[in-house]
Amino acid sequence: MASKSFKASISDLSTASDVLDSQNGKPPLPPQARVTFARRTSSGRYVNFSRDDLDSELGSSDYLNYTVQLPPTPDNQPSNPVSQKVEEQYVSSSLFTGGYNSITRAHLMDKVIDSDANHPQMAGVKGSSCAINGCDGKAMSDERGNDILPCECDFKICRDCYIDVLKTGEGICPGCKEQYKTTDLNEALENWRSLPQLPPPSGMSKSDRRLSLMKSSKSFLMRNQTGDFDHNRWLFETKGTYGYGNAIWPKEDGFENGKDDDIVEPSEFMNKPWRPLTRKLKIPAAIISPYRLLIVVRMVVLGLFLAWRVRHPNNDAVWLWGMSVVCEIWFAFSWILDQLPKLCPINRATDLNVLKDKFETPNPGNPTGKSDLPGIDVFVSTADPEKEPPLVTANTILSILAADYPVEKLACYVSDDGGALLTFEAMAEAASFANLWVPFCRKHRIEPRNPETYFSLKKDPTKNKVLTDFVKDRRRVKREYDEFKVRINSLPDSIRRRSDAYHAREELIALKEQRLKKEDEPVEAVKIKKATWMADGTHWPGTWLTLAADHSKGDHAGIIQVMLKPPSDEPLCGIGEEYSMIDLSNVDIRLPMLVYVSREKRPGYDHNKKAGAMNALVRASAIMSNGPFILNLDCDHYIYNSQAMREGMCFMMDRGGDRICYVQFPQRFEGIDPSDRYANRNTVFFDGNMRALDGLQGPVYVGTGCLFRRIALYGFDPPRAKEHSAGFCTCCFGRHRKKHAAIANTPEENRALRMGDSDDEEMNLSLAPKMFGNSNLLIDSIPVAEFQGRPLADHPSVKNGRLPGALTIPREPLDASTIAEAISVISCWYEDKTEWGQRVGWIYGSVTEDVVTGYRMHNRGWKSVYCVTKRDAFRGTAPINLTDRLHQVLRWATGSVEIFFSRNNAFLASSRMKVLQRLAYLNVGIYPFTSVFLIVYCFLPALSLFSGQFIVQTLNVTFLIYLLIITMTLCALAVLEVKWSGIELEEWWRNEQFWLIGGTSAHLAAVFQGLLKVIAGVEISFTLTSKSAGDEDDDDFADLYMVKWTSLMIPPIVIIMVNLIAIAVGVSRTIYSVIPQWSRLLGGVFFSFWVLAHLYPFAKGLMGRRGRTPTIVYVWSGLIAITISLLWVAINPPSGGNQNQIGGSFQFP
User: Fold this and answer.
1) Sequence-distant (≥ 6) Cβ neighbours of residue 97 within 8 angstroms
2) Residue 417 catalytic?
3) Where is this region: Disordered (predicted)?
4) According to a count of CB atoms within 10 Å of the terminal CB, is the N or C end of the chain lower?
5) Strand 668-670 vs strand 874-877: parallel, antiparallel, or unpaired?
């Protein structure tokens, strides 16, 4: 079936909701959301403005019906109405709340935090007050935060009062009583927007500046009114440049004014060869060829060994032989599942210089050189400020805001699933400190751009720094950061004291009112709910410190606050040192958009934990910024490499990048003990398994540090999905492509949005509301995100590309209706009767939603890429305590068991998933079941020593040769894997040790928990892993030595006890036997020591810190006592026993 055209797709998407409404297929929804503006007066009351009032005040009949049909030029796009710019100021200073059966409210906040906010983009920024009596509004200001003074008398007036004066006061200034020279709000704001970027010369007075601007030419709208619009002048102002091939291309000598710095000659474009953004770096054949050969050899030897074991049973101990053979068969199967996907490892490299040349350098499609990179929405998730310290989250936010990516293309969304005021004010403090930190990082090229990490570096901070004022700037910023940390640390007490004070005031007011009503009657104590109060003296709409109805973690309204409004399209330089803490006169001080989001939660609705919070952010961001790419980070994972997003964008924008669903970065951790006792770094997985999967269909999604393509999260199929067969291993055995004639003849733009489980099924766009919900803005944003996420069509081999310069247009400003729609899509009811969590967004139903989400994308035919940067892209924290680590592994393993018993099992994968990729996902679901066989195998040496038997009849030459070959091939494979992956042998050994520790504890518990959920329907709940705030006074590794008891420790402790006792019993029996069976003793003791060597880190963790005497010491003392007593019994058996068979009492029946 032929695909729909792209234009038809857009049309269908825009009308989909209307079609569904006409069919009465929309689920029952609460009343339509309505935006209410409220401005606080000096008396404490609020004056409400409806949306209709705002539109009627801002609109004018003179300007409504005139339209100029003028083709936009690259550097002169159609201007947004100034009324939208003014309304954006309201949006950025308003706290939007709403949800189920409630009105969407926009609460104007004069104050977000107790400290001063001085950045013009920040919510609640300090500004001049309106001089009209009785009005406490803020004076009009431009994008730099400077006051807009429409009259020469410098009378400050707010936007509302200015509109009233123009409408009812005949344009007379309330200050000097003179007629306004500029009686149009649009003209006044447009003139003041043309302020110079750098501070004006000291010789020019403020009055001169204003008069010079007021005497400027008429505004664009005024020219529209007269009808004498000069198109030639418009073209001349833009240098008449529409791109390469234009008839008005500049001459060789440049323009008449001689200023041709921004224009590049066509010859320069012609001489530039096309270069790719990324390269594949294959593993040297001297390493990978023997590696693959050894895998095949070991598979053959394992098959021969298992066949020999089955044909040669131990008739003296059939039970021992049977258990060992079953375990060995499973281990061989598990090893094959783990090893086969490693046949095709690859490395990749990016070229950031090429990225800059293509997207940020003047070219025929982008003569001005504005950034043509697509937008990125960064998601940061947090849930509990007690376990995830706000200082850690704030540092993550600061590293994002300071990232080396176009400011206007970057937006950061913080998901606070707990709805805590502490997190809200901590984010506001971070936004305030970013006013200094981000320009400082840009000026001196700071790395890393996490202030806590940067100021904790042990190396010389002045290395490679060339600006003479660096030391002075660093000292000042360090002092400000210390004060910032103190403010963050004091927020809990500050919020508590503030709430207590306001609560006491409310009680006094209520008591006074009660006394006035009942003058002669005794007054009873007034009981008022103890609310949590914001800095502006109003109730916090989220979770209160003292839980109450509609104000608890599982029951609160949806909240959206634009902490930093979207930046302007043009660079905005700071001011000199005489007016600022550091000299920022040549530094762009703009900040990316920062939005605080707390989705609505109500009892009776399943919130789906982190996956539900991520899906709420996907919908809200699609309406507010609609970045075609999404970067997901945990609150404790910060950007360590400021160019990490550019590195990921190289893969997305390269040839064939439109088929990449996500770019996964490796996880790197800080604060881990030097020996990495519990394999927290997990380098074997991140540098071994993930590189190998990159050679197949791509790495799995691991929950953080991942750059997504938005439409891949929406559940669409990749472009040209039918042209690619599943294949076996493309790098080893080639790729076989199968192209259908109908698909090959269909234009690329007609195959942009496809969705369906079968090869011939197209997405029915009329049913889009049933999939994505009833938000028209959300549905309309889908084709826009798809188009903006395409690579450049700068080469004939680039399919499904876009023209250069298409993304240089400024984004639309935010307005109240947009935020109201965002409030609607984060409501608790929005996902009802939709595909969110089923086919769209993060997938529900598993505690490891990350693996399932990546699996669904690969199952639809998408590819993923593993991006290992020279400098770590992101860094985070990991639990170094044994108990915390086991609980973390338990959560992962439980999710794998859930996957195995769900429809996400790799056995049920589609034909679009490659065979080896399917084996990798199959291993993800099966590996916890290895724990059952592993724990049995760990007891086999002890049972062998107790019974005096072994898994084989005798240690003959055949068994020893097989054992030697298997061991040698395993060691050789480990050495070669260390070579191509870049890990160390010690890290490989630590991974092997923790594999057995986790397999005998957390994995076994996960199997039972998963079976209980599948069979009995018992829900599984996990506690949030606590993150350390990094207190400098504490020992860095204090958690490492802390012993926290958990039932997961019981199986490994029992294994250690039993094997130690068995060794003692076996040695004593053999020594004092008349006919010592040394071969059986040697086999049993060797395997017992093998088990104990793997459990050594676990035993070391139980001992706690050196110099202390934990309770476990007494437990070990008891074990030693038992061992000695058993030895005594073995050496001196009871009288009357058979003296010829020492230790016969230990025989198994």
Assistant:
1) 104, 105, 107, 541, 557, 558, 559, 560, 823
2) yes
3) 1-33, 65-85
4) C
5) parallel
